[in-house]
Write a structure and sequence with these properties.
Layout lengths: L4 H17 L3 H18 L2 H13 L5 H4 L4 H9 L3 H17 L6 H14 L3 H18 L2 H17 L3 H17 L3 H4 L7
């Protein structure tokens, strides 16, 4: 999904088919969830929900690992315009990450929470969560997440009417995504996603 979404989809479809053929629960979970998210990002909502359900219906022993503490699942629910379900997944993910000291997942979970709050119109709390997510991502030097945080902060600033800050965050996100060769995400900056 990092660069060529349309090329990722057939690979994930094949992974899901092989996993189902051999009843590999972890593979079904991982490929189903990622494929559902990719389908949503590509605009294929009908198949996306089918893949998400297939990925989540059979609980793999390490579901937190395969869904990255819920970050992938929450992102998929946000792409599906289901912020309430995303919020529930994020809350569980934040709790599980704290219990396991999985600090690397805190930044994306906080950023996704900011996205939910932004959709709910709570820009003040969205900004606070996104700022916190950016701080954690910078501390851990997770550059892709730093870029995502800047993109979210750009949307928050735009919603607050701060065009200068919005442009600065969008530019920072775009530069980082381009430097990381994450062209799919760089291309989504200008359209507000």
């Amino acid at each position: 999904i990092r660069r060529h979404l349309e090329q990722a989809i057939p690979v994930l479809e094949r992974g899901l088919a092989i996993s189902e053929e051999h009843d590999l629960v972890h593979g079904i979970c991982a490929n189903g969830v990622y494929l559902g998210w990719a389908m949503l990002l590509s605009g294929n909502r009908t198949r996306a929900f089918e893949c998400l359900e297939r990925g989540l219906e059979r609980q793999a022993g390490a579901v937190l690992q395969w869904t990255r503490f819920g970050t992938v699942t929450a992102a998929a629910y946000l792409a599906a315009d289901q912020p309430d379900e995303a919020g529930r997944v994020i809350a569980r993910g934040l709790t599980a990450a704290a219990e396991r000291d999985a600090r690397g997942y805190r930044a994306p979970l906080l950023r996704l929470e900011a996205e939910v709050l932004l959709r709910d119109g709570d820009t003040a709390r969205a900004r606070q969560r996104a700022d916190e997510a950016l701080e954690v991502a910078q501390e851990l030097a997770t550059h892709p997440e730093v870029a995502h945080c800047h993109a979210t902060l750009g949307r928050v600033a735009a919603r607050l009417g701060d065009a200068t800050s919005a442009a600065q965050h969008r530019d920072a996100a775009r530069r980082l995504f381009q430097d990381l060769d994450m062209t799919f995400w760089a291309g989504r900056i200008d359209d507000g996603r």
